[in-house]
Structure prediction request, 788 residues.
Amino acid sequence: MYSEEIRFNRKQNETGVKFGMTFTDKLMETDNPDPNKILGLLKPMMKKKRTPGSVFRLAAKACMEKGRYDLAKQFLTQSLQSNGEKAETRLLMARCSYKQKNFEEAATEAVKALEMDEELLEGWILLGKSQKNRGLLKEALHVFRKANRLDPKNETVALEIGSIYYAQGKLKKASELIDIALKLDPDYEEAVVLKSQILLRVGRMMDAENLLGTFIQSNENCLNAKVSLAEVYKERGDYRKSVHLYKILLDQYPGNSTLRSNYAGILQHLGEFDESELQFKKAFKTNPKNQLPLSNYLMGLHYNPKQSREEIFEAHKLWDKHFSPVEKPNRPVPENLNRGRKLKIGFISGGFWKHPVGWMTVNAFEHLSKDQFEIYCYSNQNRIDEVTRRIHQTCDSWKSIVGYHDDVVARMIREDEIDILIELSGHAADNRLQTVAMEPAPVIVKWVGGLFNTTGLKAVDFLISDWKETPEGEDRWYTEKLVRLPDGYICFEPPGYAPHPGPPPALSNGYITFGCFNNPTKVNPEILKCWARIMNRVPNSKLFLKSRQYDTKALRERIVDIMDLEGVSRDRLLFDGQSGHEELLRHYRQVDIALDPWPYSGGLTTCEALWMGVPVVTKPGPTFAGRHSATHLSNAGFDNWVTETWDQYVDMAVELANNPDKLAKYRKELRNKIAESPLCDGERFGRHLAKALRQMWYLRVDGYKNREEEWQRPIEVEPIYSEDHIPSVKSGTSRPSDVTADALQIDHTNNAESKLYEIIGKSRMTHHVPSAIDDLTTYVMLEKGRWI
Prediction:
């Protein structure tokens, strides 16, 4: 009788739980389930002694709706304990881990689910996504193909395969798979957005705009598609439309940090610096976990003439404060600390293509000694062109990290046992600063790419510079230790398709044409007033401004209005917008003299102007960003075009304009002079960079043996000359007449060092000869083709 009563109560209890579960299940299936209400209904059930696993599973689903993935995993663990292994439970566990960006754990849980039910399509999809985010593209592709066999008409699978091809740079294959996904589901927003990105990449801007516009007409609630359309407007130079669309979106989603950051970027391009900075700060305040607004804000400060060097330096410390790990990471310690061993050098960037990073580094890649270095490239951009292919051919390992989580990339670098990691994006687009902040290599270096100032990251040990970019006394404005190369900090690779410069247009026009092909963000009222002073002293002269932003009428009118107030009429201003790179270079045939902007100077633009036979006049700005032209001009042998005051800037431009014969001579000779200068000497630059890397390694090794926290020190790289090369004379130095070519020959005998000491005593060239026994020995060994 007693046992029967127990059985009856238990049955009644199970019936009540079953009824409650049915009701709660139905609540979960509604369009907008209330997770708090569901958890409230489940709470009494979970207090029962023998609670079914399905109750805990349902509670986990409710927690997932709230984004409480840790709590959801606790309920799922209870479900497993109560009801044993279930494929659905493991799948939910995998989904929680995936949402937490713990992709390795997500993959493990998905595999457990599939071991119980290999027909579980969502399990295969989740496993594939997890593998893709771990950087295992081949494995992910294999998994998605299995999923495709389970359901050949699944649009998600088609898109995922297409996205992998996109990450691999296989745009044609990617487009085919995305088209399949859109055929299966024409309203698939993610597929439309990815398709538009592919169209942009191949230059079909209007097709991208039409695709997105058509989709938006029939899908009103599609934020990502609208953002993509605003970015298409920006890419083709229609900033008015882009700003208008972003304003509409911000009215609807005022708390969206990415939207506001994108909007601030457009304002920056239009020269509205104060409002742009305000919007960037507001975007960052809205979502302090998003590094993009802060990085964009830091870069934007360098365009604003109102910002001081001190204010900019203090602002750069904000990134480290907000985004570096709370606990300092343990850097890897190499097993082999031999000073002269072959080193693994890792380069991480989104600029390994026809981009300023590509044009300024490819020469160095090709001239780093294969005997001394293994090159690893981690590419955060899947563009592929001839520059990409050249860099790819020089490296020992090439890995795409597009879409991978930062901790995955950091682990990848650690597993590759990189000795020196060099960051090539800075605070610019496609950066991986959060990966760098995890300190995945023994030595971390900043070079090129978004290099407009200090990074502000304590994780970065060194910053590669030169004596023009960072003159003596500038060290205190950098959180990194400076590595000063003897010439310039980059080596320019001129495009093979650059047209012949042709004669200066003044010869046929009868008037001088000044030009600036820089990003118009660098063209502010202060520099425009200076340019107006020049034009007012050169009668009938014209100013030619070219960049895609000049397709926007509002931007043109702003410049016209400023110049009109300074006495330069509209008919003396020429504008040109979007064009391909070769066409842009060809337009230099319409320019006599290039005027460098301020406070953010031209970098690649200055090199290209010189290559096209056009002199460039510059006044260095207050930060690294403002001295690019100064270093390139000095490196090319034209220090006289680097001025110190606005009066000197104006006088130099006017002096060049009043000497048409000189302009014609420059047009004929500049390209050859540039080609023969250190600016384009890849072999020379490669040897200097190699020496800098080796010196960084020496300091790191010494740091392990001595005081760890003090191992970084500034580095001054002395020049290395080949046996048949007489060192070029730089600004501020002189070469005595008695130091001849014969005197500089190294005979590779045992008295080589004493001979070099003799040369040093005669030359007295500051920063251009070895100054210490260690450097001198390295010099001699290099000339012999050996390392110490």
In short: The radius of gyration is 31 Å. The longest helix spans residues 2-28. The chain has a mean pLDDT of 86. The chain is about 55% helix and 5% strand.
